[in-house]
Write a structure and sequence with these properties.
Subcellular location: Cell inner membrane
Protein name: HAAAP family serine/threonine permease
Number of domains: 1
Membrane topology: Multi-pass membrane protein
Number of strands: 0
CATH architecture: Up-down Bundle
Helix content: over 70%
Catalytic activity: L-serine(in) + H(+)(in) = L-serine(out) + H(+)(out)
Radius of gyration: 21 Å
Order of helices and strands: HHHHHHHHHHHHHHHHH
Number of helices: 17
Oligomer: single chain
Largest sheet: none
CATH class: Mainly Alpha
Distance between the termini: 47 Å
Organism: Pseudomonas gessardii
Shape: globular
CATH superfamily: Amino acid/polyamine transporter I
């Protein structure tokens, strides 16, 4: 099978590349990838990154594009290296065997499912804060509020994958405009709070320590790995042997849009608020948008910021549900059970509903969940597994010897060691 895959790759490599122009489907996927990535992680990034100081934030901004683009490109190439129509769990089994496939499927699920829990908490907090501070009404009991919100999102999920991607891409347009508007609005409010500690470069050991612990949050903030499997399968169906080239183009444009928009927004927030205010936002377990809405005495910001946060978190929940359900279905099938497609969908939705509802009701620390669950576990799937496959899988041999492979591996190891340190501290 690998020899056959290699011969197919060689045939396409020697054939002159003639791709069609940028299509509406390409634009939909680009915005869908952007929409999956921009959610709770992005809205909490100014808080966590700002608390680390100005210089670490500046270095993280420079690393953002290569760190996220090369990693997601590697995962896309990994899925594309399998048989046509195979998702990520099936490609793992094809390349590494049944036991490895089961292990990676389990890890894949636990890399993505905690993100749904984070979004469930963030969504409930955002709506609850909006009702209390902006609408001046008493929100319903937390258990009821979270249940209604999660049920509403799962109703959209029932419409199918293509509807989810289109819905996310449509929501991205007003979201980009609103995020850019808010970042520009904050410019006159910039102050020297964080810059007061930036006049001298920190000691190398302190700088490296801050960067080390911030990498997992950065990984999570730009992550859209849960939708990469569906993205790669669709690219292979659309473009066949040219799928890798077109998918790389889509990923590059999506990541450029992400990095420019998100880092401008992050710097605008961090330069507006003092370190003490950022610490207060972290203690309140609110996104930066909800904190800004409560901070400014401006009706437009007070109403717009929570609504932007709601849209961001909701569309990211939808995108990550695709990956989480894919992983859970894979686990159920690999356990030996063979339920019908409809029964499998109902089992998956029921499990997601119950667990997300319980966690949203309990309201654990969002940043704590990102630091200890989201970033490091994602890193093992997003950063390390594709790099290992490049070294071991014949179908991916053509990607060996690239400096980007070393960079991606190093970032993945940094994220995982930061988890070990956080748990031991």
């Amino acid at each position: 099978m690998n020899d056959q895959a290699n011969s197919v790759d060689e045939r396409y490599a020697t054939t002159p590349v003639t791709l069609t122009g940028w299509s509406r489907q390409d634009m939909t996927w680009m915005l869908g990838l952007f929409g999956t990535a921009i959610g709770a992680g992005t809205l909490f990034l100014p808080i966590n990154a700002g608390l680390g100081g100005f210089w670490p934030l500046l270095i993280l901004a420079l690393l953002a594009f290569p760190m996220t683009y090369y990693a997601h490109r590697g995962l896309t190439r990994f899925v594309l290296s399998g048989r046509a129509g195979s998702d990520i769990t099936e490609v793992v089994e094809e390349h590494f065997g049944i036991k490895a496939g089961a292990l990676i499927t389990l890890l894949y699920f636990f890399a993505i499912f905690p993100i749904l829990l984070i979004y469930s908490v963030a969504l409930t907090n955002t709506v609850g804060s909006f009702m209390s501070h902006q609408l001046h009404i008493e929100p319903p009991p937390r258990a009821l509020l979270s249940l209604v919100l999660i049920l509403g999102l799962l109703a959209v999920v029932r419409c199918g994958e293509q509807v989810i991607v289109k819905a996310m891409s449509l929501m991205v347009y007003p979201f980009i405009v609103a995020l850019l508007f808010l970042a520009v609005y904050l410019v006159p409010h910039w102050n020297g709070g964080i810059l007061s500690t930036a006049s001298s470069v920190p000691a190398p050991s302190a700088l490296l320590h801050t960067l080390w612990l911030a990498i997992p949050v950065m990984v999570f903030s730009f992550n859209h790995s849960p939708i990469i499997s569906a993205f790669a399968v669709d690219q292979k169906r659309q473009y066949g042997g040219h799928a890798e080239e077109r998918s790389s183009q889509i990923l590059c444009r999506a990541h450029l849009l992400m990095v420019v928009m998100v880092m401008f927004f992050v710097f605008s927030c961090v330069l507006t608020l003092s370190p003490a205010q950022l610490a207060e936002a972290k203690a309140q377990n609110l996104s930066i948008l909800s904190y800004l809405a409560n901070h400014f005495d401006n009706p437009t910001i007070a109403f717009a910021a929570p609504l932007i946060a709601f849209v961001a978190i909701a569309k990211s929940f939808l995108g990550h549900y695709i990956g989480a359900s894919e992983g859970l279905k894979g686990l159920i099938v690999k356990s030996g059970r063979r339920p019908g497609a409809k029964a499998l969908d109902r089992m998956t939705a029921g499990f997601m509903l119950v667990v997300c509802w319980i966690v949203a009701t309990l309201n654990p620390s969002i940043l704590g969940m990102i630091e200890t669950l989201g970033g490091p576990i994602i890193a093992s799937i997003l950063f390390l597994m594709p790099m290992y496959a490049i070294r071991k899988v014949p179908a991916m041999a053509k990607y060996r010897g690239q400096m980007s492979n070393v960079f991606v591996t190093a970032v993945g190891l940094v994220a995982i060691t930061a988890l070990v340190y956080s748990l031991a501290a």
